[in-house]
Amino acid sequence: METWSEMMRGRDHRISAETIVVGSGPGGALTACLLAEAGRDVLVIEEGPRSGLSETEPFSRDEMRRKYRNGGISVALGNPSVAFAEGRCVGGGSEVNSGLYHRTPPEILEQWRRTHGLRDATEADLVPHFEACERDLSVSRLPGTAPAASLRLHDGATALGWRSMEVPRWHRYDAQGPGCRQSMTETYVPRVERAGGRIVSGTRARLLRREAGRFTVRCAQDDPDGGRREVDFTASEVIVACGAIQTPTLLRRSGLAPGGGTALHFHPTVKVVARFPEPVNQAGMGVPVHQVKEFSPRIGLGCSISQPPHLALAMVDHPDALSEVMSDWSRYAVYYAMTTGGAGRIWTLPGISDPLVQFSLSKADLADLADGLRRLCECLFAGGADRLYPSVRGLGPFSSAADLARIPSGLPRAATSLMTIHAFSSCAMGSDPRRSATDSYGRLHRAPEVRIADASLLCSPPGVNPQGSVMAFARRNALAALESAS
Ligand SMILES: Cc1cc2nc3c(=O)[nH]c(=O)nc-3n(C[C@H](O)[C@H](O)[C@H](O)COP(=O)(O)OP(=O)(O)OC[C@H]3O[C@@H](n4cnc5c(N)ncnc54)[C@H](O)[C@@H]3O)c2cc1C
């Protein structure tokens, strides 16, 4: 079969469609699917490569190299800086993530109504969208026992009387084997194509222009010969779904949203490597599914992927203990305390394709992180851990609950390693143009013919894993647009 690049070779490089969706992550893939199934001529432009779930080992270095932007480590500059990760492949973050699913908490929806004037987004408004996404992605609970490292956190919380839950995942379990995570390439991407939509991978949108009622998306496309070339795509409608960092980058470059990108939010996260007296970890350990919600939404506690490369990364502040951890790694696992504070900005720089990302944390945000770290350590000791290494240089290891008195009231700026895998709110939705880049349905206030359909829209940190919220709003907005056009 002729590839897209072969089809285009030697042709006039202006390809047209009725609707262009830029970005094929959860927001973009779902939107493209609904529009294509409604009979629209849809073309999806995706910067990253196309490779199905089975082509890389989950959570491996190879996966990071092939499916993440910058090999999985980008940095938001600040004091402290925050390392963050973005998927960059057909399917976006859904291809590399853990699949942990939450609906948007009702109190967060209420907060968004109050702060941003977000309309038609109560829990009752969103339930049909949550339910449809849950069906489409087979959101379900583990059929068997959770990994031991996950259970240790749950045991600790239960011993302390704290609320802890097993989080469902988008995963099709089967009786014989590990089953299959229901990423975009397993769900909405094939549906787009079955409905006649086209997906063009290896193609980065650089600029959006509107002339005589039509959009041109100017792209840099990977050439089969290893080079790059310019290609223009035209459409009467454009939906931008490049994720919370890249969407405001593209809009700013295109002069479309000077305000977009001024209110980036993360879930800033501090990590702890815990040692237990007995093995809790093994090669191919399943995804940990327990989360402690006692202090939500301000602080959430959980267990991370803990394969040896992840353990090594989490031990960066304790280099002297690294070889001990690696030689006995089945007794160790990585845990996290996730918070909601801080605010960032995204800058575009002439001649450089990556944006500059800045993130600031106040004294109160560092106090929340310290509180999260303390509670996480308490929970792990209650769950049986006998040594803890926090991701703070010069702090720990801790060997008993009494050692936790050494955690300062605010984490030290110069010695704390923070990370996040959740970015949002850079082009928030809402009816108040002073606080939001788009209206309540994702149309840019200053250019309503351009829509956004990704994590940028979330008005503030949801305090839970965000993909469920991204998909529910993408579905709600796409159906509303189809209805208003009919
Ligand atoms: C390691 C990891 C684990 C995670 N675990 C969970 C989890 O368990 N549960 C959960 O709810 N969330 C999780 N998340 C977060 C979740 O993956 C994101 O919230 C979600 O993917 C956001 O969807 P999106 O559509 O906004 O953008 P993305 O998924 O970021 O997709 C955007 C797509 O647009 C493409 N793109 C960007 N710029 C351009 C351009 N200029 N031209 C063309 N294409 C472009 C990108 O390559 C990417 O494929 C995790 C994230 C990571 C990185």
Description:
With 486 residues, this protein is an alpha+beta fold. The chain folds into two domains: 4-50 and 92-137 and 182-259 and 428-485, FAD/NAD(P)-binding domain, CATH 3.50.50.60; 142-178 and 268-420, Cholesterol Oxidase, domain 2 (2-Layer Sandwich). It is built from twelve helices and 26 strands. It has helices at 4-8, 26-37, 61-67, 106-116, 123-136, 148-160, 188-194, 243-253, 308-314, 322-327, 363-382, 467-485, and strands at 14-16, 19-22, 42-45, 74-76, 82-84, 139-140, 164-166, 169-172, 180-181, 198-200, 203-211, 214-222, 228-235, 237-240, 265-266, 269-275, 290-292, 299-303, 332-339, 343-347, 356-360, 387-390, 418-420, 423-424, 443-444, 447-452. The strands form seven sheets. Strands 10-3-2-14-26-25 form a six-stranded mixed β-sheet, covered by helices on one side. α2 links the parallel β2 and β3. α5 crosses α12 (467-485). The chain is globular, with a radius of gyration of 22 Å. The model has no long low-confidence stretch (mean pLDDT 93). Bound molecules: flavin-adenine dinucleotide. Flavin-adenine dinucleotide binds next to α2, β11, α8 and α12.
How would you describe this structure in keywords?
single chain, 486 residues, alpha+beta, FAD/NAD(P)-binding domain, Cholesterol Oxidase, domain 2, 6-stranded mixed sheet, 12 helices, binds flavin-adenine dinucleotide
Radius of gyration: 22 Å
Percent of residues in helices comes to 25-40%
Averaged pLDDT = 93
Annotated CATH topology of the largest domain: FAD/NAD(P)-binding domain
Number of E-type strands: 26
The coarse overall form would be globular
Side by side, the strands of the main sheet go: 10-3-2-14-26-25
Structural class: alpha+beta
- CATH architectural grouping of the largest domain: 3-Layer(bba) Sandwich
Distance between the termini: 36 Å
Q: Note the total helix count.
A: 12
Task: Give a quick account of the main beta sheet: strands, pairing sense, barrel closure.
Answer: 6 strands, mixed
Q: Report strand %.
A: 15-25%
What oligomeric arrangement do these chains adopt? single chain
Overall number of domains: 2
